[in-house]
Amino acid sequence: MQRTTAGAALLAFALLAAACSSGESAEPTTTVPDATTTTAVPATSSTTAAPTTTTTTTAPIPPLVVWADARLAGVLEGYAADFEVATGIPVQIEVQDLDAITPAAAEAIAGGAGPDVFYGSHRAAATLAADGAVVAVPIPDPEAYVAGALEAFTPDGDLVGLPFEIVSPGLYANTALVPEEALEGTDLDRICEDAEHDGQCLALPSDPVTALAVVRSFGGYGYAHSEEGWDTADVGLDSAGALAAADYLDARALLGSLVPAADAEAAFASGQTAFLVGPPSADPGPSEWAAVPFYPSGSDAVAAAAEVYGFMVSSASDQPVAARVFLTEFAGRDAPMFDLFLEGFTVPARLAPYDDAVATDPRIAAFAPAGAASVLPWDPEAGDLLDALGGAVAAIASDGTADARAAFSAAAASLRPDEG
């Protein structure tokens, strides 16, 4: 993929010029004058004298400040340079821990400071939008995105983030223990029996996101979802499907295979287990491995609980139009998303780089979301849901003796204001 095009540069000029001519006060002009201007002033006397000079210095254009994590920062450097060539505006990329970016940005924006652009999870989008911390990011081609990605950053009608990366669990398989042809079915228990693996068949992380994915596979739900969006008053952790998922998790706990994520990855990487459930960022170790969607219920309902990461534009930015141009014409296009996939096995949020990623490594398809209903809801409700579900899973995983259905029912009740 080419990094940028002359067309993008021309469009960047046009958009910035239009913003300036329309009188948007928050956007500085982008004309870059010479650093100094020297004017000779002739002497008025007949006496020969050295001419005097006047020097005017133009203040440099302030940089567009972007907060991103280390792996993304490396990908963005070339596109930032292209943007500066096209617009005259430098880009300053500051590296932050991924999980720390959004809370730090929210705090800084509240004080009128912080970055112009920052990278974070869609879960924070609703709170940030309600607090007026982010601005809308219009895009020219909404049809170019993976299903569910744009909805994740549209908490109240306006798109407030540009989706870039999708994180969702998939099923890793050690092909030295389980032949790839055995993965064609969806019944994991049957596959485990056919493989006759001596150790534990599956390493299942005992985290709430994985548990929610299992709940959805069994036909249960955390909060109800429809075309209108999330209905957080309709809690489904005690629905029939969710209780069936509780039984499944309970059975895994009794087998000793419902374990912390780090332990699950270590068991799979060392060859102790044939399967691992985890996100694209999981470390499968040195063994040859395949990846397929995770169908814990044995049906064709994939386990899905996706988190979408993307760029947001600060409402405190002095350069909001420049920030939008940087995202929509440079950093948020197909090529950067594919570059990040090549760097770290990630799921691109746009269709073209996603298709290119699948063509490059078909295993990435195992981690794709199944649409808007497969995405996590927004905070604070998402946090409440995962906290409640996490408590239930911890009780089930602790010693295998907890009443799994009762734990799920208690979690559901805690999310209902009239019961919790």
Give the name of the CATH superfamily of the largest domain. Periplasmic binding protein-like II
**Number of continuous helical runs:** 14
CATH topology name of the largest domain, in short, is D-Maltodextrin-Binding Protein, domain 2
Order of helices and strands: HEEEHEHEHEHEEHEHEEHEHEEEHHEHHH
Spans where pLDDT lies below 50 across 5 or more residues: 4-15, 17-47
Q: Categorize the overall geometry.
A: globular
Q: Which percent range fits the helix content?
A: 25-40%
Overall pLDDT score: 84
Number of strands: 16
Q: Roughly what fraction of the amino acids lie in strands?
A: 15-25%
Count of spatially separate domains: 2
- Based on the structure given, which CATH architecture of the largest domain is correct? 3-Layer(aba) Sandwich
Structural class: alpha/beta
CATH top level label of the largest domain: Alpha Beta
**CA-atom Rg in angstroms:** 26 Å
Account of the 3D structure:
This protein is α/β, with parallel strands linked by helices and 420 residues long. It folds into two domains: 6-29 and 61-167 and 307-366, 3-Layer(aba) Sandwich (D-Maltodextrin-Binding Protein, domain 2), CATH 3.40.190.10; 170-305 and 378-414, D-Maltodextrin-Binding Protein, domain 2. It has helices at 6-21, 70-87, 98-110, 125-130, 149-152, 188-195, 208-217, 240-255, 261-269, 320-331, 334-344, 351-360, 381-399, 404-414, and strands at 36-41, 52-57, 64-68, 91-95, 117-121, 134-135, 162-167, 170-174, 202-205, 223-226, 229-235, 258-259, 275-278, 289-292, 307-314, 347-348. Strands 3, 4, 5, 6, 7, 15 and 16 form a seven-stranded mixed sheet that branches. The chain has a five-stranded mixed sheet with strand order 12-9-13-8-14. Strand 10 and strand 11 form a beta hairpin. The model is unreliable at 4-15 and 17-47 (pLDDT under 50).
